[in-house]
TrEMBL record:
The keyword Calcium appears for this protein: no
Hydrolase listed as a keyword: no
Protein encoded by which gene: puhB
Record region (Disordered): 199-226
Protein name in UniProt: Photosynthetic complex putative assembly protein PuhB
Length: 226
């Protein structure tokens, strides 16, 4: 399998036409939505929930010791600077990560360039994508995991934050926080069909299944469970 991971000190996020071989054209490019990246990859909600639980614990303990609710809330308020700092750092990291990332689809491959401190590239020939799926968020962004043959897969830590969650032993790349994800999925579907002989039907435009997320699948020539 020719999918590979290379790291370069001078790699730039954006793939340009002059970098591609003759006959290869760019079909789509995008970078992740930084806010959705903060919520998903960097678990911003989980951090907020942790601080909330800790604050409630401090209120309860202080009230038990002193009998004063005011003292309890005063103790909890002392956590606000730490919460603000933590949230701010997560948001900054998500913004920098999104800024350093580009997803590029050509008529032959899907290229992921990412990395703030250590720029990296994942080059995936379309012929090697077994299956892809779409998790669509209510704001139109979405995540697209890609199922690849086991041989030659990069490691989970090489891919993160663009690794499918919990697939530690058999890492799968995932396009996270893709803006206008339904349209992006349609373009990926069409490219897969064209590169693999049109052996599977194209996925219709995905819509949220509920107020938060929806899920749809689209395949290449070789079906695989997601």
């Amino acid at each position: 399998m020719s999918t590979h991971m290379d790291e370069f000190d001078d790699i730039k996020p954006v793939v340009t036409e002059d970098e591609l071989p003759k006959g290869e054209t760019i079909l789509w490019q995008a970078r992740p939505d930084w806010w959705r990246l903060a919520l998903g990859a960097y678990r911003l909600k989980l951090v907020g929930a942790w601080f909330l639980v800790f604050a409630l614990w401090r209120i309860g303990v202080t009230h038990y010791d002193t009998g004063s609710w005011a003292a309890g809330f005063g103790e909890a308020a002392a956590l606000l600077p730490a919460l603000g700092t933590g949230v701010g750092l997560i948001m900054l990291l998500a913004y920098l990560t999104a800024r350093a990332t580009r997803f590029t689809l050509t008529n032959r491959r899907l290229v992921m360039r990412y990395g703030v401190a250590l720029p990296a590239q994942l080059n995936i020939p379309l012929a090697h994508i077994d299956h892809a799926s779409l998790k669509l968020n209510s704001d139109g962004t979405g995540d697209m995991p890609l199922s690849l043959p086991k041989k030659g897969r990069p490691s989970y830590f090489q891919l993160w934050p663009y690794a499918r969650p919990w697939k530690l032993g058999s890492a799968e790349p995932m396009l996270r926080a893709v803006p206008n994800a339904a349209e992006a999925a349609r373009l990926v579907t069409d490219a897969l069909l064209a590169s693999q002989g049109g052996k599977r039907g194209a996925m219709p435009a995905a819509r949220p299944a509920n107020a938060d997320t929806g899920r749809a699948g689209f395949s290449g020539a070789r079906p695989a469970a997601v």
